[in-house]
Amino acid sequence: MGVFSLLVETVVVLSVVFVILAYLYYRYSSAKMEVEREADAKGYEDSESYISAFMAGKPRRLDWSILYYNDAKSIGLRFMMASFIFLFIAGSFGVLMRLSLTAPYPTIVPPDIYNILLTEHATLMIYMFTIGMSLGLGFYLIPTQIKAVRDNMGNITSAAFWLYLVGGILFVLSRSAFRWYLYPPLSLQLGAFGAGTEAWLGILSMEIIFTGITIASIVALKVIFLDRSSEVPLGKMPLFTWSIVFTLIMLVSSDPPIMVALGMLFYDYFNPIFFVANSHNVLLFADLFWFWGHPIVYIAILPFFGIIYELLPTFTGTKIYSYNSGVFGLGLLMVLSELVWGHHLQNSGLGLNWDLFFSIVSFAVVIPSAITVFNWIATLWTANKIRLTTPMLFVLNGIVDFIIGGITGVMLADTSVNEILHGTYAVTSHFHYVFVGISLGISMAAFYVIFPTISGGRTYDERLAKWHAYLLAFGSLLMSTSWQIGGWLGMPRAVDGYFAWFQPYQIGAILGGVIIGIAQLVFLYNIAVSWYKAPSTDTNNIIENPPEIPSEAPSGAVGGGR
Amino acid sequence: MQGNKAGVGIVIIVAVVVALSFSYVLTSPTGGSKITIPSNPAYTNTTNLWADAAGWNYGHGTINPSLNYSVGTVVTFHVTEEDTAPHTLYIVSAPSSPTQGPISYENQGNGYQILSTSQITQTKGHTVDGQYYFNKAGVYVYWCTIHPQTMVGWLYVNATSSSSTTSLSAAHSASGTGISNSHMTPPGFFASLSFAGNLGTKALSNLEGTFSLENIPSNINSDLQYPTYLDMSTVSGTTGGSVEL
């Protein structure tokens, strides 16, 4: 292609993109102006309060208006839908990576592209899917749960959402290949190298994502603490709200270090003084990253613990076994999450004393995790009858997966075990147990629960939904278990090939990954089909309007050991 | 997005976005995984290989011969099939210790594939050519991934001398360049360079020290899954040796 035709093509593509964007912005702003005018005419201070007022008590349905209504529920749906789309992007990247490993050498994608897929899968899943889903569920459910009396910072949250979305899109466009932890000097490659990777754009987009989620978290904290109805004192806040509180505190307290580190990293492009070898601080970036990087993995699961706490009472017909220990467990997880970042760096030469410190604190994480799991199991144990609905299947699978993932994870925190398992698939297995079981599974459960609300009273196909649950559970177990065995035998992770004697474990993981992919396709098909049916149920959902549970359990139920 | 079609809308949006991201990422320009064969190389060489499950060149002189080339040689491997078994021809960097498995080469786990099973057609007498451009000095292994225990041999790319002398470069030694013997145990296995062979016909001016055969692990074959080129039958009556390098 000559320079001239290249130029013409670029100009045409850019013009089309700009025309589309301008049209979308026109639709967006005119719709928004109409809302503002209505709010003005009715005498409201801002459009968010107006929307919240006329939406109060009504279910929030999914339609285009979520894009220009700035009330908390619309923004929550916006976050959830965006994170769903990123889930499917990142998930399909993950399945493609698996499929490329059918042979010991790369088959479908070349190594350079494998590295991009690896980075995009991890980053999009963690930053765009789990954080987006946490914030989305938070914004969607919390105003009801705390009976919010005010909803007046929607414009700021809306801006935060668009920052988050633009950051995610730019990250895909950057074709980054520096894994999700952006270690320099790999992330300090300025120009396009390998497969056209633009690391600078990756760093910039991460900074944009962080800006967005930080702003959104601060607003959400403000909603919870300042806009809460006096009917809901702190001690009676639902456990989901508590889990969001702890999540947001973690977010706000631990992402300044990584934002600063990203700024320093970007500065290094122009004046390499911070994270270069002669700065005598080669571990500085890793420390700054993991100071955020460990809390983020708790951010990715804590809200879903909260959802489990919300779903269990309905489907077991009993109250949560212990509300106080639930809050305590979640809070202790928050505190400990800030102290264990060094267990990601145990082979980096922090020194034996630090290694032992981080190892011991990581073992201490077992305490709040066990409190939480015990609370769930005790709730199940004291139940008269457990209804195995689709959300409940996801919850049970999540509990099992979290137990396995937690045990395999705490073994990794042992300094000497870490020495051999570090960098093997055992690590991948550990966090995929937790992420697929808790983050993915429970967000699916939450979506099924709120489906009648957002679809205006439609019911999902129970049979397909159960297939989804069973396939996801089986695929997750197969994939992560194969990795766990292979990892203990020394199968290195994050590479595009493997030694041929690891083939059985890789094949197991490929099957598991493909099954998870198929499960998600079943889910998509279910949505499309179910939305075609006529509305047939009421639009309440059990998280926003939990059914009344008798405070006194029926006689004979408590103790459960019948 | 209100009404019955909202679900389909979601599916379409997801499909379009996923397809866009796929096409964007998968069309990334990849570099370095394909070897460019220069049209005007410094040297060219055609090496005849006979593919037999019992070993390369089985029945045609030395089995699994060590191959020596100069840097900058485009080598054409002219492979003749001797049996009806499937074979491949791969090039991989030599392991640096006896316990290390094959290490990747050209970004591929098994090494760079010169000929695949589909090119070697399992027809007796069929010939096929594969080319590779050796532009880095070092010790390589050529092997058939289907018969890794039998069909595997060393390949030396020499940085200094021409292909007219059978010299090889010792990748892990300070002064190994110019030590010449095609039967030499490949360097890199030991702290000392050990070798065996009929040294009477070779110039040994560059070597100093005393020589003896030693430090050769007996389990080297089973550990590495590569046969070594220590042909014990040729040791007798010669000066075998090892020298601290």
Account of the protein in words:
The complex is a heterodimer of chains A (562) and B (245). Chain A has 562 residues and is mostly helical. Chain A is built from 17 helices and no strands. Mean pLDDT of chain A is 88; it is low at 555-562. Chain B has helices at 6-26, 220-224, and strands at residues 43-51, 67-70, 73-81, 89-93, 112-115, 127-134, 138-143, 152-158, 192-195, 241-244. The interface between A and B is large, with 47 and 33 residues.
Quick summary:
The complex is a heterodimer of chains A (562) and B (245). Chain A is mostly helical and 562 residues long.
Q: How is the main sheet of chain A built?
A: none
Give the tally of β-strands of chain B: 10
Q: What structural category do the secondary elements of chain B indicate? A: alpha+beta
Largest interface: A-B, 47 and 33 residues
Q: Can you count the helices of chain B?
A: 2
Rg of chain B is 23 Å
| Strand order, largest beta sheet of chain B | 2-8-7-4-5
Task: Break the fold down into its secondary structure elements and pairings.
The complex is a heterodimer of chains A (562) and B (245).
Chain A: H1 3-41, H2 47-55, H3 72-100, H4 111-145, H5 154-174, H6 199-226, H7 239-270, H8 284-299, H9 302-316, H10 323-337, H11 352-364, H12 366-381, H13 390-412, H14 415-421, H15 425-454, H16 462-488, H17 503-532
Chain B: H1 6-26, E1 43-51, E2 67-70, E3 73-81, E4 89-93, E5 112-115, E6 127-134, E7 138-143, E8 152-158, E9 192-195, H2 220-224, E10 241-244
Parallel strand pairs in B: 1-3, 2-8
Antiparallel strand pairs in B: 3-6, 4-5, 4-7, 7-8, 9-10
